[in-house]
Amino acid sequence: MKDFPPTSYCPFLVSKMFRKLQNWFMPKKKKHSAEFTQTVQLLHMLEVTQEDEIACGEVHELLDQFTEMQMRGENVNELMPLVKRHLDMCPECFEEYEALLAALEFEETL
Question: For 32, which of 18, 36, 102, 103 could close a Cys bridge (C-beta 3.0–4.6 Å)?
């Protein structure tokens, strides 16, 4: 058996582990509790976690720039990919983004 350094990251192994845990936790045709659903969501977030991510605080600092760039029609996927990825993964930050976008769109109509 190979020894891997504790900092090594293997998306394939994480994905495989996630599928096994998901199959174990999620038998077919069984109703699930809210705690169970949260556990599955957490496992999914662990599966798609990457080494180059930013935290909610950093996203909040960049959210105004990101939203203004989006409003101007700039390609935010290329210009701010970490912010875009975080918004795709974090419902709380995405809600903040949507609120800011709505406010800016409303401001344009005045």
Answer: 36
93 and 64, same domain (yes or no): yes
Q: What are phi and psi of 41, to 5 degrees?
A: -65, -40
Look up the domain containing 35 and give its range. Answer: 11-48
Same-domain pairing of 64 and 32 = no
pTM: 0.57
pLDDT tens digit sequence for 73-104: 999 999 999 999 889 888 899 999 999 999 99
d(CA 12, CA 21): 14
The whole-angstrom separation of Cα 77 and Cα 84 is 6
Q: Degrees (nearest 5) of the Cα angle 15, 21, 24?
A: 145
**Contacts with 26 (C-beta within 8 Å, 6 or more apart), sequence order:** 32, 40
